[in-house]
Write a structure and sequence with these properties.
The structure is a homodimer. Chain A is α/β, with parallel strands linked by helices and about 425 residues long. Chain A has two domains: about 160 residues, Aspartate Aminotransferase, domain 1 (Alpha-Beta Complex); about 250 residues, Aspartate Aminotransferase, domain 2. Helices cover about 45% and strands about 15% of the residues of chain A.
C-alpha cells in the first residue's frame, strides 16, 4: 500500500515525528526522568473540582443536548464566550468569525486542508512549531523560512522570502514555541503591511497569549490588520489574518478545545473541511467549557497559571545561570516573557541529539532543536519546557543537564577539564 | 485564495454538502417540522444519568489525568474495553490493532489522509454513505461504484469494477446508511476472496452492527478475512480489512468517540496522521466512556436502544403501508433488520429534491437520495430516518409524506386523481 504520496509522507514526517517527539514523549512517562521535553501544562494547574462541578451541571440540566450531535461550527454559547474573551485583547469579532476546533492542532490541520496544495510553500519562522510543520507537511507543503532574533522574525528579511510566493505566512508572535521569543510591535506592523501588499494571508497562532508573566501586552496581528483596514461597521472581521488559540494552556488540554478567528468566508471553508474531518467537536466538552467560563473558572485559572509558571520560569533561568557554562563559551538561552518554553543555543559543532542520549543516562530530557527547523539547521539548539516539572525538579534537572553540557564541551576542548 | 484544488473541492463537496445535508440539518431544528432527515439517535435513549455518574467518578478519582494530554492512539483502558467488545463479534485483536478516533467520521478522514492520492478511485456501493464520500473527496478521490439489491452489493459485478484498480473498497455491510440493506454472507465471502486475489484492501464501516432488531448476526468482513488467512498466533490481526465502528449510536454521539481495527502497520500510519490532525481525542471523554463501559452502561443501553428503534422501525413500516401508494405504482422501500434508516424508491421521473420542497411545506423532511450516489444517479430515491422522531410523529410524518407523494404521482398521471 505504499504510494508516492505515502513515500514522501514517510520521508518527511517519520523523521520529524517518530524519532524525535514521539520517542521523547514515551521517555517523559518514565518516572525516574526529569523531563523538560513535552509541552505539558502542570496538572496541579487544572481546575479539576470546578470542571467537575461544571460537567455535573451540564449533564444535570442539559444532558440530552450535551450528548447529541451538534453543529460543525461549534456550540453558540461557547462561541459567544470566545467573542467576549477576544474583545479583551482588542479582537472585535462576531460568532460568525469563529469555529471551534478539537484543539488548535485541528485548526492547523483544517487550514492545511483548505489552503495547501502539494508543493505549495509556507513561510515560517526558523525555528517554528513542530506540530504545525507536521500538519502542513501532510498536505505536501514545502517551506521558506525566515530567521529570528530576540525580537522574533527578522522582518527586514521578509520581503525577499515573500517574492518566492508562499501560500501563507505562519507565525507564533507571543512566547513562541519553541524559542520563547516575542515578536516586537514594529515588526508586527511590517508583517501586516507586507501581507497586505503581497496579498499573502497571515496565520497567527497564539496559544500562549494570555500567559504573559511580565512586560506589556502587544497587539495581535489580527488587531493591527483590522486597524489597517478600518474594520467593517457590523463588527464582523474580514481581513487578512487567520488567528488561532486554545483552552489547552489556560483550562485543560485533555478537553481538546481550540478555536479559529477568521473572515466569514474562510470560516465557511473551514466548517466544510471540519465536517468531513470529524463532523464537530464533542458537544459535551464544549458545553462544559462554556459553563466553566460562565462561572469565572477560566479567568481565575489564568491568574493561577500565570503565577505558577512565572515562578517556574524564574527558577529555570536562575538554575541555568548556576549550572550552565558562561555565555563566552558559546552557550546562550532566551528569557521568555511568557509561555511554556525557553530555547538554548549551544556552540556550533555540538549536536543536541547526541547530547540527549547522554542526558537521558543522567535522567533528564529535553527536545532537540533540529526538527523545529524546516531548513534543516538547528543541530546545536534545544527546547526546554518550564511548565510541567515542579521547582525542585527544575533545579535538579537543570543541574544534571548543565553537567552533561559541560562534559560535552570539555570533550570538545572548549572548557578547561575540571580536576 | 482559490486554487485548482479548492475549485475542485468546491465543485464536488459544496454541491453535496451545503445544498443537501447542511441545509436540511438546519430545517431539522425547526420545531414545527417532523424530520426524518438527519441521522440523529433518539435523545431519550442517551444514558444521561449513568454518564453523569461516570464523568463525576473520573474527575473525582483521576481528574488531573483526565484533563491532561494523552497518547495519540487512545487511552489504554478504552482500547482494552473495545478489545473485549470486538471479541463478542468474533473479531480477535489486541490493543495494538486499535486507534481511538473523534467519531468514526475522523476514521474516514484519517483513512483518506493515509491512503488516497488525488485521482485515486475508491470502490463503493451505490448508494453509499455521504460522510465517507465527503471525507474521501477532500483528498481528491474519484469513485467506481457497484449497485446494490436487497442483499447488499451485487458482488457478481465486482470483478469488473476491481479491474479499474481502485485504491480500496468501502462498504457498510450491516443496515447500510443510507439504504438499510445488509450484505448477505455468501457475498461477504466473495468480497473477501476478491480483495485477497486483487490485493485491494476493504474498509468495513460498521456503525450499526450492534443494532440488529431481527434475524441472525452475520460475520463481519474482518472475521471472514481472518478465517481466510488463519490469524496469527499472537492474536494480533494482520489481514486485508480496516474495520471502523463508533459509540455514537450505542452510547451518545455528543461524546465523539469511534475506533478503527486494522493491522498494526496500518494503525501506526493512522496514528501518525491523527497526531497531525488533533494530537489525540479528548482524554476526559475517553475516560468517561471507559468508566461507563466498566459499569455496564453500554450493554444495558444497547438493549434499550434496540427495543426503542425496533418499535420505531415497525411503526414506520406500518405507516408506509398505510400512507404510501401501492408497489405497482413503482414505489418501494427497504425493510432493514437493524440500524437507523430505510430507503424509498419512487417511480423514475419523480425527483426527490423537488418532492422535498413540497414536503417541507407540509412540515415533513427527509434526505434526497441523489447525493448518496457517487455516479450521479438516484434522483428518484430518498432516505428516511426512524430513530429520532417518536412513534406518534412517525405516524403523522409518514402520513404527510404519503400525501405529498400521491399528489406528485397524480400530477404525473400515475394514479387516478381522488375526487
Amino acid at each position: 500500500m505504499t504510494t508516492p504520496w505515502q513515500h514522501r509522507f514517510a520521508q518527511r514526517t517519520q523523521r520529524m515525528t517518530s524519532s524525535a517527539i514521539r520517542e521523547l514523549l514515551k521517555l517523559t512517562e518514565r518516572p525516574d526522568i526529569i523531563s523538560f521535553g513535552g509541552g505539558l501544562p502542570a496538572p496541579e494547574a487544572f481546575p479539576v473540582d470546578e470542571i467537575r462541578a461544571a460537567a455535573d451541571a451540564v449533564l444535570a440540566r442539559k444532558g440530552s443536548t450535551a450528548l447529541q450531535y451538534s453543529t460543525t461550527e461549534g456550540c453558540l454559547r461557547l462561541r459567544e464566550a470566545i467573542v467576549v474573551q477576544m474583545a479583551r485583547y482588542g479582537i472585535v469579532v462576531t460568532v460568525d468569525n469563529i469555529i471551534i476546533t478539537s484543539g488548535s492542532q485541528q485548526a492547523l490541520d483544517l487550514i492545511g486542508k483548505v489552503l495547501i496544495n502539494p508543493g505549495d510553500r509556507i513561510l515560517t519562522e526558523t525555528p517554528s512549531y513542530l506540530g504545525a510543520l507536521q500538519a502542513f507537511t501532510m498536505f505536501g507543503a514545502d517551506y521558506v523560512s525566515v530567521p529570528c532574533d530576540d525580537d522574533g522574525m527578522r522582518t527586514e528579511l521578509l520581503e525577499d522570502a515573500l517574492r518566492v510566493g508562499p501560500k501563507f505566512m505562519y507565525l507564533l508572535p507571543n512566547f513562541q514555541n519553541p524559542s520563547g521569543v516575542t515578536l516586537a510591535l514594529p515588526r508586527r506592523w511590517d508583517l501586516v503591511r507586507l501581507s497586505d501588499r503581497y496579498g499573502i494571508p497571515l496565520v497567527e497562532d497564539d496559544p500562549y497569549g494570555q500567559l504573559r508573566y511580565e512586560g506589556e501586552h502587544i497587539k495581535p496581528l489580527v488587531v493591527i490588520d483590522a486597524e489597517l483596514r478600518h474594520a467593517e461597521d457590523d463588527g464582523c472581521y474580514s481581513g487578512n489574518v487567520i488567528y488561532l488559540s486554545t483552552f489547552s494552556k489556560t483550562l485543560a488540554p485533555g478537553l481538546r478545545l481550540g478555536w479559529v478567528v477568521a473572515p466569514r468566508a474562510v470560516i465557511e471553508r473551514l466548517v466544510q473541511a471540519k465536517q468531513g474531518s470529524d463532523l464537530h467537536t464533542s458537544t459535551f466538552v464544549q458545553m462544559v467549557a462554556a459553563e466553566a467560563i460562565d462561572r469565572g473558572v477560566l479567568d481565575r485559572n489564568v491568574k493561577r497559571v500565570r503565577e505558577l509558571y512565572r515562578r517556574r520560569r524564574d527558577v529555570m533561568l536562575a538554575a541555568l545561570e548556576r549550572a550552565f557554562p558562561d555565555p563566552d563559551m558559546g552557550v546562550g538561552w532566551t528569557r521568555p516573557q511568557g509561555g511554556l518554553f525557553l530555547w538554548v543555543r549551544l556552540p556550533h559543532g555540538l549536536d543536541s541529539l547526541q547530547l540527549l542520549t547522554e542526558a537521558i543516562e543522567q535522567r533528564v530530557a529535553f527536545v532537540p532543536g533540529a526538527p523545529f527547523h524546516p531548513d534543516g539547521s538547528g543541530a546545536n539548539t534545544l527546547r526546554l519546557n518550564f511548565s510541567h516539572a515542579d521547582e525542585a525538579h527544575i533545579d535538579e534537572g537543570i543541574a544534571r543537564l548543565g553537567r552533561v553540557v559541560v562534559r560535552q564541551l570539555e570533550r570538545m576542548g572548549r572548557v578547561p577539564a575540571r580536576a
